[in-house]
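Justification of computing resources. Each target in the renewal requires a structure prediction run like the one illustrated here; the chain below, 187 residues long, is used simply to show the kind of job we budget for.
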Amino acid sequence: MDLFGTLFHAVEPYIRDYGVLAVVIILGLESLGLPLPGETVLIIASIMTASGEVSLKYLILFAWLAAVIGDNFGYMIGRILGRPLVIKHGAIVRITEARFAAMEKTFQRYGALTVGVARFIAGLRQLNGVIAGTLGMNWWKFLFFNALGGAIWVSAWVLGVHFLAKYVEDSRVIAHHLGYIAGAELR
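Resulting structure tokens:
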């Protein structure tokens, strides 16, 4: 079984039993900085919107809120506790000093735009808020680009997958191919 299929079978029962709440918890924790498969969960829930098992409007709204709120908690961690704590305990979530330094350089080079674009880049998506906080980015600027990037990211995945799953006969084939894209975040 491929990576997406394995994840689908592991996560799908939680989404079936707990609905959008399961997505909110996983996306919120991922946005806080934990290495979780947020895009994969979003894809699975989006497939389930096509059959009516998950509400499309609630998925979009609450997935967006979870992503934004999780990033804001990450921002506070970075701002209050700082880089030394992140480096000291980062190995727990696969953050090395070199990896964190490379991400900081990206933020310093591209500024607040990085916050919005980071949603689409595995690794950077998870550490988006923490890095912005450690660098002392203005919170209002961070909030704006975080909310905008989160809205585009959630909408693109949810609406794109929902449309494909609803209007293309074999959504399993689509899920399999999309899994290669989302599964790349775990490699």
